[in-house]
Amino acid sequence: MTTELRVLTPAEWDTFYASLERAFGVTESQEERELFRDLTEFDRTIGVWDGAGCVGTAGAFSFRMTVPGGASLPVAAVTMVSVAATHRRRGVLTTMMRRQLDDVRARGEAVAVLVASEPVIYGRFGYGVATCEMRAEIDTARVRLSVPDGTDDVRLRYAQVTDADVHRTCEEIYAAAVPGRPGMMARQPGWDRLQVLDPEKDREGATALQCVLAEDPDGTVLGFARFRVKPQWSAAGADGVVVLEDLEAVGPRAPQAAAALWRFLFDLDLTSKLVSVNRPCDDTWLHLVSDTRRSALVLRDALHVRLVDVGAALEARTYRTAVDVVFEVEDAFCPWNEGRWRLTGDAKGAVCERTTDPADVALSVRELGAAYLGGFSLAALAAAGRVRELREGAVAQAAAAFGSDVAPWLPHGF
Ligand SMILES: CC(=O)SCCNC(=O)CCNC(=O)[C@H](O)C(C)(C)COP(=O)(O)OP(=O)(O)OC[C@H]1O[C@@H](n2cnc3c(N)ncnc32)[C@H](O)[C@@H]1OP(=O)(O)O
């Protein structure tokens, strides 16, 4: 097999994307193809070619991700990875990952992130599962909500998803939410279109996207929900499903706005179930309902994080409590990270430098990635044998410092 890996040109995009679609077994709508062509950053998209045939695809988007403490860190958001079934298991993916991580390092991005089609694929390249998404199917016919004081003062109104003012307002709410939660990505130009792309083929019998705004009596928008309704009827009557796509509320009245939106979604006429496929693990509704057992909760891996430059990545976030720990890092795929790093820091800032001092904690870069956003505890990883404590108390100190009061979460794929 003679293959050539090269940076993609615009003229090659159609062949590249057709190869990606085939590997995923999907046919995208015209709208989706156009959007992804517009969003493609050609200088960081690679194809592997066997003659005229595209047999490998991979790309990255230049995003900014919130890290614990609220800073916004440039990250490489890895995407569009595929290898043709005719060429799989011969190292094509490994070659692309090698090239991509070298490029990310050369660009000075300290972290790469991705959402995996299959979680098993990326650990070998140093990615650790750093966030979960929570799925729920809430039996709204039986589960009751109790809302906080002031919820009745929140006014709800239907708005057109496609109206430019409404769209801008929702984007402003989203942007205001981003710094408050690790893992959220500031929307880059064009990415807002993905949120309201509403191809018929993905509706599965449900309505087009609908939007409801939550407002103060003076008209200040506090939050929004975007959702669909899937009508269903059984012999006993209406049995419709509300499918939630997006819900955000910000500011001091966020609890009331969110509660008003949830109450609205729970109470929609002719429905008896609310389905949400991707919500944060600490979502507000969990604390408002009478019964989470009837909510069919499922946790799934979401954002996988790879520290490409361990020192710069650990310095880019802050720490919940004071920390002074020497990590012995193992990183076979990116050996420039290997060895000892002393991390000192607190809630104001951090320094992470090379050291020859004895190590306190030994772990692979994958575990550091898993703990990076505060979603998975170094103590839990140590209990599982994935992290080794070399100085008594060091894991507890590091685990407390790495934690996040807000569960990290990625609201949308890429
Ligand atoms: C961020 C994203 O875009 S996620 C999307 C990933 N793409 C897909 O899922 C589309 C369908 N699948 C594919 O295109 C391919 O099977 C890929 C990209 C997952 C793998 O490509 P390949 O070229 O076959 O991978 P490669 O040969 O480099 O494999 C490297 C190692 O990973 C293992 N591996 C790769 N994919 C898988 C998998 N899906 N399950 C289990 N092991 C896997 C290989 O067995 C190999 O192990 P080894 O080193 O011990 O022999």
Automatic annotation (TrEMBL):
Parts forming coiled coils: none
Catalytic site: Y122, F414
PROSITE patterns: GNAT (PS51186)
Keyword Transferase: yes
N-acetyltransferase domain location: 3-148
Binding site for acetyl-CoA: V81, S82, V83, R89, R90, G91, V92, L93, T94, S117, E118
Keyword terms, alphabetized: Acyltransferase, Transferase
Assembly, per entry: Homohexamer; trimer of dimers.
Family: Belongs to the acetyltransferase Eis family.
Protein name: GNAT family N-acetyltransferase
Species assigned in the record: Streptomyces cremeus
